[in-house]
Amino acid sequence: MKMVIAYTRHEAFEPIRMELLELGFPSLSISEVKGSGRQKGITEHYRGSSVTNYLRPKIKIECVVADKDVQTIVDTVLKHARTGSIGDGKVFISSIEEAIRIRTEEKGDEAL
Predict the structure, then answer these.
(1) Angle, to 10 degrees, between the axis of helix 70-81 and the axis of helix 10-22?
(2) Which residues, listed in sequence order, are joined to residue 93 by a DSSP beta bridge?
(3) Which of 30, 66, 77, 85 is the most exposed place for a label (fewest CB within 10 A)?
(4) What is the spatial distance between Cα 30 and Cα 58, in angstroms, rounded to a whole number?
(5) Cα–Cα distance for residue pair 81/88, rounded to 1 Å
(6) What is the torsion angle, in degrees rounded to the nearest 10, for the CA atoms of residue 26, residue 61, residue 71 and residue 67?
(7) Are 65 and 73 in contact (CB under 8 A)?
(8) What is the mean pLDDT of the chain?
(9) With contact defined as beta carbons under 8 Å apart, do 19 and 75 qualify?
(10) pLDDT at 30
(11) CA–CA dist 9, 63 (Å, integer)
């Protein structure tokens, strides 16, 4: 099993969610996060003063899937999140040792 973690712009989330749902991956965890990277800060002017915001808002999408499904998830995220501009986000993939469904105590891929 693998966990796919994607940090994307807010506007990319809904198309990603819809396609993953259509592909049979309804289970996602979503968090609104802020972070900084190569995008650096954005300077805004408000009432005569300049304010630089170094933390940009992003959506964190987490999805645990069977090893064979990882590329499908990654391809879907890349398809909808890539604009070619700085700040598109990142995708991380990590191994999951075990999964257990609490209700039925199913383990491994059955728990997914």
Answers:
(1) 140
(2) 4
(3) 85
(4) 10
(5) 6
(6) -70
(7) yes
(8) 91
(9) no
(10) 97
(11) 17
Residue 35 CA to residue 57 CA, distance in Å, equals: 7
Tokens, residue 91: 């995708």
Structure tokens at 71: 């590329």
Tokens of 76: 């879907």
Q: Look at residue 46 in the predicted model and tell me its pLDDT.
A: 78
> In which residue are the tokens 């968090």 written?
31
Q: Report the relative pairing of strands 89-95 and 2-8 from DSSP bridges.
A: antiparallel
Convert the chain into a string of H (helix), E (strand) and C (coil). CEEEEEEECHHHHHHHHHHHHHCCCCCCEEEEEEECCCCCCEEEEECCEEEEECCEEEEEEEEEECHHHHHHHHHHHHHHHCCCCCCCEEEEEEECCCCECCCCCCEHHHHC
Domains of the chain: 2-111 (3.30.70.120)
| Token couple for 69 | 């499904």
Type of residue numbered 72? T
What is the pLDDT, as a whole number, of residue 36? Answer: 82
Q: What one-letter code names the amino acid at 90?
A: K
